Amino acid sequence: MTTLTPILATSGEVGSHSAKHTVRMAVAGVSGYAGAELARLLLAHPRLQDARPIFLGRMVEGDAASGAQAPQTLLSDLHPQLASYGATDAVVPFSWQRLRDEGIEILFLALPHEQSREWVPQAIESGLRVVDLSGAWRLHDVSNAAVYKLHDADPVQAARLQNEAVYGLPELHRDAIRKARLVANTGCYAASIILALAPLVRAGIVDIEHGIICDSKSGVSGSGKAPTAKTHFMYAANNMSAYNVFGHRHTGELVEQLGVTSSQIQFTPHLLPIPRGILSTIYLRLKQQTTSHNVEALLREFYKASPLIRVHRSPSLPQIQYVVHTNYCDLGFELHEDGKRLVLVSCLDNLLKGAAGQAVQNMNVMLGWNEAEGLR
Amino acid sequence: MTTLTPILATSGEVGSHSAKHTVRMAVAGVSGYAGAELARLLLAHPRLQDARPIFLGRMVEGDAASGAQAPQTLLSDLHPQLASYGATDAVVPFSWQRLRDEGIEILFLALPHEQSREWVPQAIESGLRVVDLSGAWRLHDVSNAAVYKLHDADPVQAARLQNEAVYGLPELHRDAIRKARLVANTGCYAASIILALAPLVRAGIVDIEHGIICDSKSGVSGSGKAPTAKTHFMYAANNMSAYNVFGHRHTGELVEQLGVTSSQIQFTPHLLPIPRGILSTIYLRLKQQTTSHNVEALLREFYKASPLIRVHRSPSLPQIQYVVHTNYCDLGFELHEDGKRLVLVSCLDNLLKGAAGQAVQNMNVMLGWNEAEGLR
Amino acid sequence: MTTLTPILATSGEVGSHSAKHTVRMAVAGVSGYAGAELARLLLAHPRLQDARPIFLGRMVEGDAASGAQAPQTLLSDLHPQLASYGATDAVVPFSWQRLRDEGIEILFLALPHEQSREWVPQAIESGLRVVDLSGAWRLHDVSNAAVYKLHDADPVQAARLQNEAVYGLPELHRDAIRKARLVANTGCYAASIILALAPLVRAGIVDIEHGIICDSKSGVSGSGKAPTAKTHFMYAANNMSAYNVFGHRHTGELVEQLGVTSSQIQFTPHLLPIPRGILSTIYLRLKQQTTSHNVEALLREFYKASPLIRVHRSPSLPQIQYVVHTNYCDLGFELHEDGKRLVLVSCLDNLLKGAAGQAVQNMNVMLGWNEAEGLR
Amino acid sequence: MTTLTPILATSGEVGSHSAKHTVRMAVAGVSGYAGAELARLLLAHPRLQDARPIFLGRMVEGDAASGAQAPQTLLSDLHPQLASYGATDAVVPFSWQRLRDEGIEILFLALPHEQSREWVPQAIESGLRVVDLSGAWRLHDVSNAAVYKLHDADPVQAARLQNEAVYGLPELHRDAIRKARLVANTGCYAASIILALAPLVRAGIVDIEHGIICDSKSGVSGSGKAPTAKTHFMYAANNMSAYNVFGHRHTGELVEQLGVTSSQIQFTPHLLPIPRGILSTIYLRLKQQTTSHNVEALLREFYKASPLIRVHRSPSLPQIQYVVHTNYCDLGFELHEDGKRLVLVSCLDNLLKGAAGQAVQNMNVMLGWNEAEGLR
Predict the structure, then answer these.
(1) Measured between CB atoms, does B237 come within 8 Å of chain C?
(2) Which residue, A23, B208, C217, D46, has fewest beta-carbon neighbours within 10 Å?
(3) What is the largest CA-CA distance in chain B?
(4) Are residues D126 and D235 in the same domain?
């Protein structure tokens, strides 16, 4: 692996593209569910109609393995539903040269975190801006990140990037994302929980010492495309189960983004017999009595500049059916008549607001575009 | 409504039937899901092969309305799946006279609670023993029972019966059920929660002051057979939603049976896109550090004489797929490494262990039979 | 009901709108599933961004009933998922005056066929062009139309309109639709079958005398939004059933559009436990031996100018998962090695290509726009 | 593989067990769905309460591979839902010695057909009676059986057994099954189709020359337990697809059992998004006009001694919901008013009447027991 001349050596200020400048994207890893949604969103994005993205497989060009691979896999072979987007694009082997030749500016990685950990340093060095959909760069604290068992070729460089990476929730880190070289897309569960809790925790009204309980439920697409005993229709259909109690990797994101300790927040994921969608039910106590009106006002104020957050008026609550196939995160709540016990309900589509849609939203922010462009 | 001579005026000791005595059952209200399951269990019950139950509709014989009703509705017309049980029994109008003529000893009521409230006093007066599947008689505290908005013809008598009624969980009230005249079958959610919590709460190891969170998920059959906007396939399928936050009627059962206050326990039901099954995820803190081994031992000891409770060994957890179409309640848990934060998971089939199977289990206990008979 | 001055008295040539002319649409009947999809498609249609459609309920302004109705029902109240389209539009009572005042040119009716039969004559008389989604105007032969039991105020006028109405499949009747005053959207089942069969039948290669078997399967949304015993989740989920064997209303459309007799084609609908999508499996014999290559070529030639038809290469076959939420009809087939027995498989989304999407496609054709505009 | 002394050398007359004789069963291959159902039925079978079956894995005792395998896999580890049947039985490696030591009389094989083809000859030679659930022995005609690509160690012996094997539909071959040494359980699709057609075809009233169309739909369990792209929840849920058009292996069974040629019957299977259940819609013409009454009478007469067939009265039709979890095959039909075009609808549970339940029914017949024993 040789160090390449930065692809955009003269790019000057990051994050200040004029509307006329044509930006090129590349997506590495389009075989999974999030990759398919990402391809779909980019192909239909109004700002990218003159700058078709390129789609890369996980194999590196020139590798023995990739040589054997059929070079003409089309995007629509992998995902027939994309045929309606004219997705006759070939999925080509990954190649730094190709990224340079095509003048790519933003690279999306929808790959296992080990692969991301290997490729991102070079990508950044090459002047690419990266939106990474894996868990590789989400956690800043080394002890939290340990759950990913990362092995870096250059640990110092990796640690520096880890520190530089911006957590990819525009609603919380819009300014940093605008200028970021590396945006770490969030965990899907984490997005649903953090978006619900952040306004209240930041306002300092949550009794954090009492502890916060996050009971989350996700559709099967969250388990990935690999056929396993647990993704078999016969296992998942008509069933429900809890898993990874006290041990899910997204917990570290909650801790870091909400500024709480791991003993103050508890997260239990469950597998739902539906294709997509997450519903998180979150239990907390407020430090002082308040009213539903105040809670709603606080949420609305926090998200007043966030077009992809919808706040329900209590007692109306979000439902999965109203967020699937959208890039919204819907928030609702019910406050006990004691004015202190609060139940938050948060819904999003794990493949969109929890993955591909969020990645496009981050891209929009990085390029100074309307963050909801191509997402409604 | 005239007062009838007690049907079993000379029954002597309640609860001491010899094996030879043939006991006759009647079921009032077989049109719903629980009624269908109850009919199925009774028709297949090994101890009732010589004493076929009778099945009664909600209409009273002689009423104008019932006169218009087709008198020859068969059980298998209402529930074609029961045809395999030879369910060519006619569903006959309700009649006290018929109950007397047929020598009925145990009357099951699978009716709205208002109807139950009206009929149970006379049934008891007539010497019948009653297993009631509605919410009419579950709550002893008047303030808790207020959620059912009960209007009694004879409030004094009703209050006395309310007090006498035994809460129908054999695992907790076996001795009282054995002798009971009126057994109040539990709420389906309540059964799943109480069975998980009772051993720990009674052992005094739960930090009740900290509060207990019960996040429950139920299949659509829990919403009843009436077609509504919320039971429409298009609404329920691929969806999930929370409802009745802080306001579900089963909460009073938790409070009374666990001996906690309503501010110490919190219950949130959710609607799952599956036909049947409940999974409750329960969050609590222990007063003192303990081990998984101890928690499991405590649960096993508590249920050592309860054949229909199955305890998982941590980290194995119950799943809905393994309890549906059974009368089991499966219990599992995970204890945090801090030794104090505990997550309990409880699963049952809301129509069986949560309704019809529980009713038969109660009948078995009332008659001195093996409580699992006909339920495995 | 008085006769109104034609709204577009001077509209001159029908079907020749320049791009600059702003066309206004109205949709009557937005409470159902097809209505919701129609509203969504129109709100997102690129050619209608400056000419927001208006949405009308089924009640007529000034009626006693409508007076009682809450006048401020919003589209997003009826269909929360439309909130993402900024659907804060009020659904207003139906009124001829309003249609005139707003300068409406095209009126969509997503109403029961009786209502359509009542309103369409006046709409046409008023100079409106109509796309009707009911079954009221699909059938030209009086004996076929008898299945709808139509009662007309002015039978002569109705018969004339019935005769004038164009069957709303642009792939078959594009030219007539372009100039039509009244377009009768097709039955959803009928669309899936006719699109598969028309190329072969018109080519004269089908052994029609032998008979054609159409075995169709549809998701639950085809049964409408009214909660009934058959749309209850508990009935539809995990189930499948055939219904209306030999008696489904869409059969007449097959007969008329394919030019066969009712004894030459047989259609059996089935209810699938999925929200949306139709798959039709069609069995026929060819008059003479042919090859897969020829069958495919014939289909492709027939649909070469039809952007919303996708033809599979045998043995690849359409699946419901690849057409739901799209406006495509996917066609595939397998030819027996005898060269004569042919199985056609056709898939579409019953709410889109089978209803709302087809209506928008018809609108596009009527206005001289690209027929796929707003549908990909 | 050495030839063993016949296990039951003195068994004398096959098929004449007195009630007192204790019969022992073994099941080889309990890891799949049919194996699990078979284990469940045998464990609960009233005639086997004193003669627990033994359960064998696919590994042969003493093989290197089996040595590595955990020897203490419990039935309830493989299938937690069987725990309620006290299924703490160990699944032991396959061993001829063990079968002999345990005095096994009937061996069930729920294994791939290659394995069955290898083991059955020795089993028969050892005096065991075999119920085989694979496709290995269903077809008598060599050209039909070619679809299974069978390779036999001793082709002559295999051909002899192939010829001897009885097709395992008691409704058609009850007498032969009673005395059979080798019963070949049927294909699940084939059972649903043959049971519907046999009465009519045998009565000679079907216009076979015209051709019979069988359009069948099956739940996902029919695709087996191996996780694959097609059994992934994300692929199967909300979807439907046709497959193996003109090429499904069960077609040979239709041809042989109904006595038609392969050009006279056509079978198309489809995958349904449900766990279990088959619905077959069958299209045919009668030679002469008849009435619904006659068709129903013919079906009832044919099955008058078959307790597991239920005939609907037209226009009532079978539905999957009423046969799942039962061992019934439900039959219904609709006759066109022309008196000649007939649509048959047949439903069964592919894991029960189509596999495990049928195997137990065959066992019952083989042992002279009531054929429905343990199946209702």
Answers:
(1) yes
(2) D46
(3) 66
(4) no
Is residue C6, in this structure, part of any structural domain at all? no
D228 touches chain A (CB under 8 A): yes
pLDDT higher than threshold 70 for residue C18: no
Nearest to D215 among C215, C273, C318 (CB): C215
Which residue ranges of chain A lie beneath pLDDT 50? 1-18, 64-69
Nearest CA in chain A to D271: A233
* pLDDT over 60 at C1, yes or no: no
* Contact status of D220 with chain A (Cβ, < 8 Å): yes
Q: How far is A364 from chain B (nearest CA, A)?
A: 30
* Token pair belonging to D355: 């596999």
Claim to verify: residue D109 and residue D214 sit in the same structural domain: no
Residues recorded for chain D: 376
Is B258 found in the same domain as B118?
no
Using a CB-CB cut-off of 8 Å, the residues of chain D touching A79 are none
Shortest alpha-carbon distance between residue A228 and chain D (Å): 5
Q: Are residues A249 and A108 in the same domain?
A: no
Question: For chain C, what is the mean pLDDT?
Answer: 90
Q: What is the mean pLDDT of chain B?
A: 90
Q: Which domain holds residue B305?
A: 188-348
State pLDDT tens for residues B223-256. Answer: 999 999 999 999 999 999 999 999 899 999 999 9
pLDDT profile of chain D (376 residues), mean per 10: 36 46 89 95 92 86 52 83 77 92 96 94 96 96 82 91 97 98 98 98 98 98 95 97 94 97 97 98 98 98 97 95 95 98 98 98 98 93
**Measuring CA to CA, which residue among C143, C323, C113, C133 is closest to residue C218?**
C323
Q: Which residues of A touch D321 (CB under 8 A)?
A: none
Rounded Cα gap, residues C192 and C208, in angstroms:
18
Closest CA to B38 of B87, B77, B94, B96: B87
Q: What is the pLDDT of residue A20?
A: 55
Omega into B315 within 30° of 0, i.e. cis?
A: yes
Residues of B in contact with D376 (CB under 8 A): 84-85
CB D215 within 8 A of CB D283: yes
pLDDT score recorded for residue C51 = 85
Same structural domain, D178 and D254: no
**Residue of B233, B273, B275 lying closest to C220 (CB–CB):** B233
CB-based contacts of C351, cutoff 8 Å, min separation 6: C33, C34, C37, C188, C221, C276, C357
Helix (H, G, I), strand (E, B) or coil at B105: coil
CA distance A212 to chain B (A): 11
Q: Give strand ranges (E) for B35-81.
A: 54-60
Quote the number of domains for chain A: 2
Nearest to C317 by CA among C301, C331, C336, C303: C331
Residue C139 maps to a domain: yes
What CATH number is attached to the domain comprising D134? 3.40.50.720
State whether residue D62 is helix, strand or coil: coil
Note whether B87 and B74 are within 8 A (CB).
yes
Q: Indicate whether B122 and B229 sit together in one domain.
A: no
Instruction: Count chain A–chain D contacts defined by CB atoms under 8 A.
Output: 54
Q: Does residue A8 contact residue A24 with C-beta atoms inside 8 Å? A: no
Is the ipTM beyond the 0.95 threshold? no
> How many CB atoms are closer than 10 A to CB A8?
15
Question: Is a pLDDT exceeding 60 seen at residue B122?
Answer: yes
CATH at residue D194: 3.30.360.10
Decide if D374 is inside a domain: no
Chains contacting A (3+ CB pairs below 8 angstroms): B, C, D
**pLDDT single digits (tens) B31-88:** 999 999 999 999 999 999 888 899 998 777 765 444 444 557 888 888 888 877 766 7
pLDDT at B15: 45
> Does residue C169 form part of some domain?
yes
Q: Would you call A233 and D229 a contact, using CB atoms and an 8 Å cutoff? A: no
Domain identity same for B236 and B270: yes
